[in-house]
Amino acid sequence: MPFSAAELLSIARNYWRPDRDFDFRPENSPEAERFLELWEKELAKMDQWRAFLRELGGALPAFTIGNATATCDACFRCSVYPATENKPQQRRWVVVGCVSILAPVYTVYGVQYEYTGTERTRDKVFLEPLPPEMQAPADIIARSIEATFGVEKLSRELSEMPVPLIVEPHEPPNTTLFHALFISRPERVP
Fold first, then answer.
1. DSSP 8-state symbol, 170
2. Cα end-to-end distance, the chain, whole Å
3. pTM value?
4. Where does the source fall among the domains of life (predicted)?
5. Max Cα separation, the chain?
């Protein structure tokens, strides 16, 4: 059964603050402590995550699969790049799969990069719908995540819902449920 917006917001409030009361204090906020404790528990699942990445590689042999998980974010994250021929390209793209550690939900999104020479000059994040070239790998990632982890896809409507929380660098009214449950800077993919 899908989670309601109120239930997801309630979960997110356990890990993110609505204020900056703990900025510049030597101790962490209770929310930050809960977040760190949760990651300590979730790190025990890294072997399962790595096995998932290997299986995903088998399902997407024409792609490069990477682990983009960072414990400052609220999710396990994989990156799926089309194989390139080692020659510079002006445009590149990646499809990213995220499994939240806060709630049993996931998302898949895309990022398109533009380069001038070797310097990234622009990026664009795509939620649903993804551009046509990203759709097939996104579908495989989504099915694989659901089958492996038994989590539900977070709808775009809920992903874009503003939340009254601070998830650096976002502050209300610009913070969304996507930022709180997954990642605040989705364009940052290695």
1. B
2. 34
3. 0.95
4. Bacteria
5. 50
Q: In the chain, what are the domain boundaries?
A: 5-20+28-181
**pLDDT of 88-119, one tens digit each?**
677 889 999 999 999 999 999 999 999 888 88
- Nearest alpha carbon to residue 107 among 80, 75, 81, 148: 75
User: What is the SS3 assignment for 114-169?
Assistant: EEECCEEEEEEEECCCCCHHHHHHHHHHHHHHHHHHCCEECCHHHHCCECCCCECC
Q: How confident is the model over 14-69, as pLDDT tens digits?
A: 999 999 999 999 999 999 999 999 999 999 999 999 999 999 999 999 999 999 99
